[in-house]
Amino acid sequence: MGKVKRERWSNEFSEWYNELLETAGIIDKRYPVKGMNVWLPYGLKIMRNIEAFIRAEMNRTGHEEVLFPALIPETEFQKEAEHIKGFEDEVYWVTHAGLDPLDVRLILRPTSETAMYSMFSLWIRSHADLPFKVYQIVNVYRYETKHTRPLIRVREISRFFEAHTAHVDFEDAERQIKEDLEIFDRLAKFLALPYIISKRPDWDKFPGAFYSLGAEIMMPDGRTLQIGTMHNYKQNFAKAYNIQYETETGDHEFVHQTTFGMSERLLAAVIAVHGDDSGMVLPPTIAPIQVVIVPIPKKDASVDVFAYAREIAEELRKAGFRVHVDERDIRPGRKYYDWELKGVPLRIEVGPRDVEGRKAVLARRDTFEKIPVERDAIVEEVKKTLDAIHENLYNRAKGFLESHIKRVDTIEEAKAVFEDRRGIVEIPWCGDEECGLKMEEELDAKMLGTPYPEEKAREGIEGKKCPVCGREAKFIARFARTY
Amino acid sequence: MGKVKRERWSNEFSEWYNELLETAGIIDKRYPVKGMNVWLPYGLKIMRNIEAFIRAEMNRTGHEEVLFPALIPETEFQKEAEHIKGFEDEVYWVTHAGLDPLDVRLILRPTSETAMYSMFSLWIRSHADLPFKVYQIVNVYRYETKHTRPLIRVREISRFFEAHTAHVDFEDAERQIKEDLEIFDRLAKFLALPYIISKRPDWDKFPGAFYSLGAEIMMPDGRTLQIGTMHNYKQNFAKAYNIQYETETGDHEFVHQTTFGMSERLLAAVIAVHGDDSGMVLPPTIAPIQVVIVPIPKKDASVDVFAYAREIAEELRKAGFRVHVDERDIRPGRKYYDWELKGVPLRIEVGPRDVEGRKAVLARRDTFEKIPVERDAIVEEVKKTLDAIHENLYNRAKGFLESHIKRVDTIEEAKAVFEDRRGIVEIPWCGDEECGLKMEEELDAKMLGTPYPEEKAREGIEGKKCPVCGREAKFIARFARTY
């Protein structure tokens, strides 16, 4: 890395993040359209590993993969009133083809409800077709007017994951939301990312949703980043797109629908949460290279450190690890620097004395700890150490998240938190929109919503008052400065 | 399948093809934008298997995967004069975002040269960066004015593969074209697709290319389908996009570039070439289900055919095969029909007598042959039979292709071929554009080009005359009715 440190409480985190994305080979933001970036091979490899896990989870839970066109006719887009209101300011319009204007203008999907649901109404006929569960991973487009930021706020989301389901009734849709939460939890553990789930306030629901849940992680600068959403649409879209099924008794009912969305923000979170002043620190689960072996030749040494390194690599590969031997003709220190930047979780150093003594040294990327090991124990030690790294990344991040959630009773206390170390502030709330918006304004922060599941939203509010109106509190409301 | 047969020489092939795509679950063409289709789960699974092979080949040959934005600024698109001329009639224009017109209009990529090459000029600095080899698999857009046809001629190509390379000189670019041809040959064998390679005539080169090669297969109706292209751009784009490198002696030179392109037409070819009146016939290499086991229960039988089927399935899965046991409560005949439609290469039928005698019956999808096997020999027999199916598909298609290439000396003979069984006609040609275009007109066919490698284009032309001008023939020219 350059001179920029991963400082909190300042613009330096942003600089650190932007510089790292480029120097570590994640994306190139010099593409000549603002807010649209080029994925570089190393970044794409990490993202593919994240996607492979998501696909496996989709498969495990009976979701089928589909692929819809990226262009949606204006006429379809306009069928659900709230949805169009929510998106009309940020869609890209295709108005011409070749030299001619189009009869029906097309939008570039900002999300795929309006592309998918007229087809759902053709596909879903009877209760036997339900639950109906599909997903796709595609590019979507949003004309962001706020400051863009690679992987976080972009005008082309290159890797947008969206699962769409249809159900016989509200209860079955609720079961789906539970399954989504379970999938998300497994994914977050896979990425070593602790998170919180909030039920969004009504004024911040997904356009067209009955309710929306959001998953947030804590960024190093104390702001939160939404990395997953689950929405229960009830029958809102089903009615707009006429998605009906025949019940067992021969009646016709509208389906209940849910969606579950994620994106390349998952990668942004991994980079931001686990990284340090030396660069990225990748969880072993998604690192394209889990172990890099650096041979350290010495002049006049009678043993072949390269052959020794290759032999260890071969053994580790057979055991299922992703291994690279760095045989470049440059100083070992330079190699350490490169692989630390790229976040390789474990380095193995082998010099002539290691060859002679049938040993090696493991160097952990997360703690920089060096661990001497016996040659014959390497596979076992690597496995153990990678597991320990993953666990440490998770625990470290969990400690950080937890120490950045503070419960307060008054606006003044909440303000003090945002002035000091930021993070998430939990405040008793009467549940009225007016009071919620007032707090957002006073705190210059966003209401993430109320803790979810619902029971959690009422824990410890007995006797508490809403600090705006003074009435009895019904919920805990979470506020944060957000990305 | 319905009543439509896979007849040649008529519109029935088209009907057969369209009906099959829908009934077998490949795509749904009822999406409300003409020429843009929805990929269904089964079709997408087959396509993913094709892509996995392509990715492995890219990896093997040192190409790195990248991902570029789908939107290209008008200003970048216009840098190479021939390229814009070739594409301006068929690009989609994004002119507005939200409620405002864009300052610089954007096109939806029809191919990615103009998106990629300004970045290449930033990335490539020295001879040490060369050869530079990248690829991506993305959605591209072409406003086709001809009749659209799913997977073949579409306005959204959902699965467009494009490899782009840069080299120190023309010779190294030529080596790349050879590597592309080798990759293509391995892929074609993987898909059991025999093909021919032709060097396109100058008037049909890719816009901006120095020369273009095309790979064609023979469709059941005697028309050809282009399923791969390789282009040597020489320095045309490098000069337009200023892609220079520093040589070992410190000079600056423009790179030489090539591209290699394929798409979902690969799947169209597989379906069309191998299919029959009962539906698809998938090569085992890409079949999502390679073996389907159909238990045939009989009333009052004392043995459990389902348990026996599951046991066989488990053993086959352990041996690495993709297996499905069809336990639905419907007649076996209905199951045969479904899986034949979906092209599953091998069916295993097990009835009570098979359980008792520890036997089973294999049914080949390609020949409908039934093969009784011993229980203990099943894994081995399945392997052998799947290999035999793949080989038979290839040989059958090869025979068909070869019997549809006819060499003639005169326009009259050529016309007779197109009136009779169609296919590819090879005619001696002087090499002049005027004579070539004249033949295209007279035959109402397209010149695919001259056989490639170049030596093949001159085989057997001694003493032959160009049938248009009567001058000495310099090449063999291939003509066909094309998709």
From TrEMBL, chains A, B:
Looking at the record, the residues that make up the Aminoacyl-transfer RNA synthetases class-II family profile domain are 41-283
| A GO molecular function held by the record | ATP binding
What is an example of a Pfam family matching this protein?
tRNA-synt_2b
Keyword Glycoprotein in the entry? The reply is: no
Q: Which organism is it from?
A: Thermococcus eurythermalis
What this chain does, per the record? Answer: Catalyzes the attachment of proline to tRNA(Pro) in a two-step reaction: proline is first activated by ATP to form Pro-AMP and then transferred to the acceptor end of tRNA(Pro).
The Gene Ontology biological process terms listed for this entry are: prolyl-tRNA aminoacylation
Localization annotation: Cytoplasm
Instruction: State the oligomer form and interacting partners.
Output: Homodimer.
This protein's record includes keyword Cytoplasm: yes
Q: What is this protein called?
A: Proline--tRNA ligase
Domain comment from the record reads as follows: Consists of three domains: the N-terminal catalytic domain, the anticodon-binding domain and the C-terminal extension.
Q: Which CDD domains match?
A: ProRS_anticodon_zinc, ProRS_core_arch_euk
What are its E.C. numbers? 6.1.1.15
Print the organism lineage. Answer: Archaea, Methanobacteriati, Methanobacteriota, Thermococci, Thermococcales
Which reactions does this protein catalyse? tRNA(Pro) + L-proline + ATP = L-prolyl-tRNA(Pro) + AMP + diphosphate
* Family recorded in the similarity comment: Belongs to the class-II aminoacyl-tRNA synthetase family. ProS type 3 subfamily.
Entry-linked SUPFAM superfamilies: C-terminal domain of ProRS, Class II aaRS ABD-related, Class II aaRS and biotin synthetases
Signal peptide annotation? none
